[in-house]
Amino acid sequence: MASTTSGDALPSGGRIFTSFPDIFFIPEFVFGGLVWILVASAKVDPANPLGWVMFVSIFCFVMTTVWFFIFLCGGNQSSIWPALDAGYHFVAVVFFLSASVDLAYITLMIGQSYNRLPFDELLKIYRLYISAVVFAFVATLLYFIHAILSAIRWKYF
């Protein structure tokens, strides 16, 4: 095993596309971005819980982008980076799990009101939110897998 003082604790450059858990960056972009797009494309009502969902999806998208470019450029070679990587992904898991549950609850409430008020626009929003819920839980799973693998990597470096 490489030690953290050797300067090769984490992959950088093109090696991040072939190493675990760094290969999860791309699916995290895709599914996190889809949650952001789907929630933003519908009417955000009620604003408070969906505001949290928007914050989490945008925050994680931007931070994952920054994280990805740090890894790509090789700025992740000091001994603190394995811990920071595991920590960031655990925070992202907690954030995305809370946002996913909020979004699922709001989607359930919209679905129950759809039974009473059959509007086509409400059905469109309901379907968008169902898709967003699925993608939010997939993004949560991806961040969770990345966090676990990052913690394992941190333990061995």
Indicate the proportion of strand residues: under 5%
Task: Work out the number of β strands.
Answer: 0
Number of helices: 4
- What is the C-alpha radius of gyration, as a whole number of Å? 18 Å
Low-pLDDT stretches: 1-7
Plain-language structure description:
By secondary structure, the chain is mainly alpha-helical. The protein has a domain at 83-157. It is built from four helices and no strands. The relative contact order is 0.19. It is 75% helix and 0% strand. Residues 1-7 have low confidence and may be disordered. Helix 1 runs antiparallel to helix 2 (47-73), helix 1 runs antiparallel to helix 4 (120-156) and helix 3 runs antiparallel to helix 4 (120-156).
List key phrases describing it:
single chain; 157 residues; mainly alpha; 4 helices
Quick take:
With 157 residues, the protein is mainly alpha-helical. The protein contains four helices and no strands.
Layout of SSEs?
Elements: H1 25-41, H2 47-73, H3 81-116, H4 120-156
Helix pairs in contact: 1-2, 1-4, 2-3, 3-4
